[in-house]
């Protein structure tokens, strides 16, 4: 019978994540922590086999079942408001921690001078290793209302027969996703780097790219130790090539603490940087990442944890802002490492993602920013929405096609939901515990990238 009380409670929120739960919970079972800890799974009304899996294979795990999907914020709050251990740890169901993660994550709380340390956030890297693939081709400018310089239009990337398009890290190469469904594609710049996830650590790897261009032209793809030149034409066609065994693969950073821009956009510090040791020192950060973080229970309880109204996204940034307003500190710990399957539960750029990130950014600003910043950014949103709608109509008239109305409709939905919640957020603004002035906290805000 265990005599020593648990030092922490690890909370895993799950919604239809059966395929991720086993590696996550197995990794928690393998933790080499020198102290007792509890593991709780909060199930947000899953309809897959998640609950049965936990009940069947993990009898030591406490299972809390919600009657409906309360999102990341409400799901975690179900557990956090019941936690009695000195520390509470959150771990995404699609994340697998290294064996010493929990010990390293809690160690900073014991360091001298850290009595006001509220949270320690982990070093989060993407789950697979990646092949850095450099692309280079002749560029062109479409003209008209589109000033971009473009390279080729990529529709799919396949490695060893597995479609990895949704997991390729594109930010240093493309202009973002366009189109929907089977017609979704990415316009690249004339040159840049994409990071291609590898299904295995050892090659060779057979890579297939489906792409098209403005005209027939060559595209050079290169990696550490090799390169290949492939043709592209005006129609979508597949080109395959082999990356030999021995080609270098890398770990890529997902999050090493979070930052907030002056316009209120949250961002992952270090996002998509190749992990070359540049984030191996502990650091004070403005905001935590809810994927893998430890809280001092006293601090979270003081602020009543996450804001349930946020449901999904920005709830961790909002809590960070409120913790700092109350005089608490947040640190990044590089030795606490987890591997994360990014956006496994919700797809980036999906309507759900766009709605909650847009709306919750505005709600967060109303609650936490100076009045001038909140008014400026919240007032800018409807103006931008109108501008996007007009540009969409003009583009469709010139092309003789139906306008793409979904982005505008999502933004209108954001505005309606924001206005509905505005009185509630103004009341919460007045209730935020404040030991640090709003203007002082805004010194943490950074220029947009």
Largest sheet: 10 strands, mixed
Query: According to CATH, what is the class of the largest domain?
Result: Alpha Beta
For the residues shown, what is the average pLDDT? 94
- The percentage of residues in β strands lies in 25-35%
Going by CATH, what is the homologous superfamily of the largest domain? Spore Coat Polysaccharide Biosynthesis Protein SpsA, Chain A
What structural class do the secondary elements suggest? Answer: alpha+beta
Quickly count the helices. 10
The tally of structural domains comes to 3
Radius of gyration: 23 Å
Q: How much helix, percentage-wise, in residues?
A: 25-40%
Low-confidence stretches: none
Structural shape? globular
How many E-type strands? 22
Features:
Spore Coat Polysaccharide Biosynthesis Protein SpsA, Chain A; ten-stranded mixed beta sheet; six-stranded antiparallel beta sheet; 10 helices
Describe the structure.
The strands form 4 sheets. Strands 1, 2, 3, 4, 5, 6, 17, 20, 21 and 22 form a 10-stranded mixed β-sheet that branches. Strands 8, 9, 10, 11, 13 and 16 form a 6-stranded antiparallel β-sheet that branches. A 4-stranded antiparallel β-sheet has the order 12-7-14-15, with no helix packed on it. The protein has helices at residues 18-29, 50-57, 71-80, 101-106, 297-302, 315-325, 351-368, 371-399, 406-431, 438-441; strands spanning 8-14, 37-44, 62-66, 87-91, 95-97, 117-126, 130-137, 152-159, 162-163, 174-178, 185-188, 191-197, 205-213, 217-223, 226-232, 237-243, 253-255, 258-260, 266-268, 283-284, 292-296, 329-340. Helix 7 (351-368) packs parallel to helix 9 (406-431) and helix 8 runs antiparallel to helix 9 (406-431). The chain starts with 7 loop residues before the first strand and ends in an 8-residue tail after the last helix. The protein has 3 domains: 8-126 and 252-340, Spore Coat Polysaccharide Biosynthesis Protein SpsA, Chain A (Alpha-Beta Complex); 130-243, no CATH class; 351-431. It has 449 residues and is of the alpha+beta class. Helix content is 29%, strand content 29%. The mean pLDDT is 94. A hairpin with a 2-residue loop joins strand 8 and strand 9 (162-163). It is globular.
